[in-house]
């Protein structure tokens, strides 16, 4: 049968329907991406403005009390503001579309931003430990603790609300920058809570060294959060394997598997900001016409477009070889050399490596 480019499209054809749905989803994802950009930028701008105001409250609390613990909390909040400013710029850059100089988009800046924020968190921990140890070895009396604690609680509640909002938006949009800033604010809330409890004890016991001890405990927590962010950012920049994403991709392929999809191998998938990049080798019957093979690729692209926002899909087609016969489900085949004897499960461990028949040809 000859191929007629002018033939009427059959809307009932599964491939046409899937491709049509994929195009609808691309339009939907484009609109959704615009909404995510607005949500992310507004959230980061709010974090910047609110963070600056709450930091001012903490420094005022330190000014009237002289507490090392409150100062350490205020120093961490300065890092919050700097990180929010950097994150705001990162969100804007990460949503820029791919161009000639950045063919894979600009999403990797989110990992850099998260790593930068984690490094700043650990830097703030150094200042926290310094002030805490100074108060332990050279304790000073703390005046006006009552009003100072009131300002501290107000700032902590504000940070808690802001952190919850940022993390909620991050879960919806998948923004690593918002997640990093939200977790940073949560660590700040923990620090403020520890400082509040410690200073409350100082207020009733008069043991001023406790002020420094609480500051050091808070500093240890800050280092934990900072290290977590840096490790995750480093993994993203180095394209560390994402088992959760790979499992999702395998599940989609397995759910829609067709007999002519003989095998999949060399599966790779990674995230870059809002975008998902997926590439793998697909083994098809060696005598399948090019037009039909291309249709299978378009079908697969449509499947992934329904699950991810503007995914970047690359499918390398391989012709089947005789060693593929044991896993091939095509019963009627002129090239079959042996009957099907294996049922290969399409899960992560089976798809990320080479197919036995293609190790020698790459």
TrEMBL record:
Membrane topology of the entry: Multi-pass membrane protein
Residue spans of biased composition, Basic and acidic residues class: 1-14
Molecular function, one GO term: zinc efflux antiporter activity
Superkingdom classification of source: Bacteria
Domain (Cation efflux protein cytoplasmic) ranges: 242-320
Localization annotation: Membrane
Predominant subcellular localization, coarse grouping: membrane
Region entry Disordered, spans: 1-36
Record key words, sorted: Membrane, Transmembrane, Transmembrane helix, Transport
One Gene Ontology term, aspect cellular component: plasma membrane
Transmembrane segments: 45-65, 77-95, 107-129, 149-167, 212-230
Gene Ontology BP term (one): intracellular zinc ion homeostasis
Domain Cation efflux protein transmembrane: 45-238
Family according to the record: Belongs to the cation diffusion facilitator (CDF) transporter (TC 2.A.4) family.
Entries under PANTHER family matching the protein: MITOCHONDRIAL METAL TRANSPORTER 1-RELATED
Listed name of the protein: Cation diffusion facilitator family transporter
Organism (species): Desulfomonile tiedjei (strain ATCC 49306 / DSM 6799 / DCB-1)
Taxonomic classification: Bacteria, Pseudomonadati, Thermodesulfobacteriota, Desulfomonilia, Desulfomonilales
């Amino acid at each position: 049968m000859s191929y007629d480019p002018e033939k009427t499209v059959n809307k009932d054809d599964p491939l046409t329907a899937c491709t049509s749905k994929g195009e609808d989803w691309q339009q939907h994802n484009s609109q959704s991406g615009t909404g995510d950009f607005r949500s992310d930028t507004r959230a980061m701008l709010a974090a910047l403005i609110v963070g600056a105001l709450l930091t001012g409250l903490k420094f005022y609390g330190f000014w009237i009390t002289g507490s090392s613990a409150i100062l350490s909390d205020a120093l961490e909040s300065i890092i919050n503001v700097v990180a929010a400013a950097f994150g705001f710029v990162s969100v804007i850059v990460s949503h820029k579309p791919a161009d000639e100089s950045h063919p894979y988009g600009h999403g990797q800046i989110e990992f850099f931003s998260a790593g930068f924020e984690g490094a700043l968190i650990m830097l703030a921990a150094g200042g926290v430990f310094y002030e805490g140890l100074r108060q332990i070895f050279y304790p000073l009396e703390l005046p006006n603790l009552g009003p100072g604690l009131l300002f501290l609680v107000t700032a902590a509640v504000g940070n808690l609300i802001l952190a919850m909002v940022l993390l909620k938006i991050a879960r919806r949009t998948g923004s690593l920058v918002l997640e990093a800033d939200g977790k940073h604010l949560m660590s700040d809330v923990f620090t403020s809570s520890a400082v509040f409890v410690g200073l409350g004890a100082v207020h009733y016991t008069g043991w001023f060294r406790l002020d420094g001890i609480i500051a050091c405990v808070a500093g240890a927590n800050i280092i934990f959060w900072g290290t977590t962010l840096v490790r995750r950012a480093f993994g993203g920049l180095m394209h560390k394997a994402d088992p959760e994403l790979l499992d999702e991709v395998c599940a989609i392929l397995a759910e829609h598997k067709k007999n002519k999809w003989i095998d999949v191998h060399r599966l790779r998938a990674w995230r870059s900001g809002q975008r998902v990049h997926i590439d793998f080798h697909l083994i098809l019957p060696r005598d399948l016409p090019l037009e039909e093979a291309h249709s299978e690729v378009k079908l697969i692209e449509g499947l992934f477009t329904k699950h991810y926002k503007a995914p970047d899909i690359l499918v390398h087609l391989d012709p089947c070889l005789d060693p593929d016969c044991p896993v091939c489900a095509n019963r009627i085949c002129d090239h079959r050399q042996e009957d099907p004897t294996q049922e290969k499960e399409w899960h992560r461990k089976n798809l990320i490596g080479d197919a036995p028949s293609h190790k020698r040809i790459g």
